Amino acid sequence: MLRFSHKIHKSVSDGNIVEVIEIDGVRSLYLGSITIQSSMRVSAPFALELAYSRGMMGFLLFSSSVKHVMTIGLGGGSVPKYIHEFCPETSQTIVEINPQVISTARSHFYVPENDEKLNIIEGDGIAYLASNRTSADVLMIDAFDASGIPPDFCSQDFFDSCEMALKNNGIFMINLWGSDKNFDIYLRRIEQSFENRVLILPTGRPGNIVVFGFKELPDLRIIYLRERAKMLEHKHKIEFVSFLEKLCEHNPHNNKQFFMD
């Protein structure tokens, strides 16, 4: 099948490259490498095009009372934009260090301007976490650059800081590459920070793996989560039932509930 692609944006500043390429109606963000950072179907700009971005909405399985989401790393803004459009009861703070990314997300990916429910801040995400403890119901980390996940975003101190940024019953989520040779090291650090209250959700092969860390244990009964997944699928065009099946496939459980060492 013949595919039509064209570059519609490129900016370079301080050695940082931001590019937007559109292929067959799907617009994608690149940060100086061949790795897709974010994608949007132009005909459905508020839908979640990539499976991992839909997996990042998995926090809805475990909480029905998310009032504030903090996100480190904007990219094309797929998940923040989705939450802003379809979860109006939830406010968000997004911290992005690269001003080119912020401007491109708004000019090419329909990310809205700041309002009472959305606050995009240009700044250092690690410093922001350190000064905003116990402030988020959900904390999402999706901070990649041209070389992958920056080392400072996968240290033990960083994951400890993530745990401290959460309110009681808070949920931590990070997007990692399953093919990363250091994946097991990162996972062990997350398990240490969250005292083994951790689940993993592969969203592709080898592809992205969404890792959940829980400040406190949520309701992990599978029958409850299955009913909640079915309910959520009526509201969102997201495969929550399939994600629950993957959670069961990749995490310890006894057919009645997940358990954590």
Would you give an account of this structure?
With 261 residues, the protein is an alpha/beta fold. The protein has a single domain, classed as Rossmann fold (3-Layer(aba) Sandwich). The protein is built from 9 helices and 11 strands. The protein has helices at residues 51-55, 59-62, 78-86, 99-108, 125-130, 156-165, 183-193, 222-235, 240-250, and strands at residues 5-13, 16-23, 26-30, 36-41, 68-72, 91-96, 118-122, 136-141, 166-177, 198-202, 208-214. The strands form 2 sheets. It has a 7-stranded mixed β-sheet, sandwiched between helices. The chain has a 4-stranded antiparallel β-sheet with strand order 1-2-3-4, with helices on one face. Strand 3 and strand 4 form a beta hairpin. The model has no long low-confidence stretch (mean pLDDT 93).
Strand-helix topology:
Elements: E1 5-13, E2 16-23, E3 26-30, E4 36-41, H1 51-55, H2 59-62, E5 68-72, H3 78-86, E6 91-96, H4 99-108, E7 118-122, H5 125-130, E8 136-141, H6 156-165, E9 166-177, H7 183-193, E10 198-202, E11 208-214, H8 222-235, H9 240-250
Parallel strand pairs: 5-6, 5-8, 6-7, 8-9
Antiparallel strand pairs: 1-2, 2-3, 3-4, 9-11, 10-11
Helix pairs in contact: 6-7
